[in-house]
UniProtKB/TrEMBL annotation:
Name the UniProt record assigns to this protein: Hydantoin racemase
Pfam (any one): Asp_Glu_race
EC category name: isomerase
Superkingdom, natural source: Bacteria
GO molecular function, one term: hydantoin racemase activity
Length: 237
């Protein structure tokens, strides 16, 4: 099967890291194409960044449809444009927040999420509520560092993540922690080893969910809300 892994921001080094970690967990027969959008923000940190990234992301999905892509993974924890993406795709479209929340709810009774900036906390809280997991998600924590700092200052990033993961266990009563940024995916195993906590990477969770959906023959329903968009003329500027 072929999965198109889309990083909705324009940072190619992050895309390479995300793609490498996705391939590490994928089945041998799964081909993962990791791509990022162009002409979009270097990182997604809020609603405006999401809105700017979605049109280019939808273009990548439309192009993937013509190439026979089986499933799509949106590699941003805000799950930007997820419903719109499902409208334009035949195959399943998986967001890493939704996939991570589903895995966390399956392997632990209570979990916390650790993300980057404080401004992302309410966005993620709203997503968790929309996915029906508020009762199990005990807290959404922030390391108070921008997304690109994960690459620019990895030592500080890892130290703050370890601190918040331990606090999630001791203060929240969390039994697992979900990493709230695709750029954290390469830290998952190391953080688990250093904290003794089950640590979930949304990218890996989304890849395995996408493989399972394709393997089971499931496609996006085109009855009702996820039906293909009606064709309309676009006005010229």
């Amino acid at each position: 099967m072929r999965i198109l892994l889309i990083n909705p921001n324009s940072t190619s080094s992050m895309t390479a890291q995300i793609g490498a970690n996705a391939r590490r967990v994928a089945f041998a027969g799964t081909v993962i194409e990791a791509v990022n959008t162009e002409g979009t923000p270097a990182s997604i940190e809020g609603h405006a960044d999401e809105a700017l990234a979605v049109p280019a992301m939808l273009d990548l999905i439309r192009a993937g449809e013509t190439r026979g892509i089986d499933a799509y993974v949106i590699a941003c924890f805000d799950d930007p444009g997820l419903a719109a993406a499902r409208e334009v795709a035949h195959g399943p479209v998986v967001g890493i927040c939704q996939a991570g929340v589903q895995v966390a709810s399956t392997i632990a009774n209570r979990f916390s999420i650790v993300t980057t900036l404080p401004r992302s906390v309410p966005i993620i809280e709203n997503l968790v509520a929309a996915y029906g997991a508020s009762a199990r998600c005990r807290n959404v924590r922030s390391v108070n560092m921008p997304v690109l700092a994960l690459e620019q200052d990895p030592e500080t990033s890892e130290a703050r993540l370890i601190h918040e993961i331990r606090a999630a266990r001791e203060q929240d009563g969390a039994e697992a922690v979900l990493l709230g940024c695709a750029g954290m995916s390469d830290l998952c195993a190391r953080l688990e080893a250093r904290t003794g906590m089950p640590v979930i990477d949304g990218v890996s969770a989304a890849i395995k969910l996408a493989e399972g959906l394709v393997g089971g023959g499931y496609r996006t329903s085109k009855i009702g809300s996820y039906d293909f968009p009606r064709k309309k003329e676009l006005s010229e500027v």
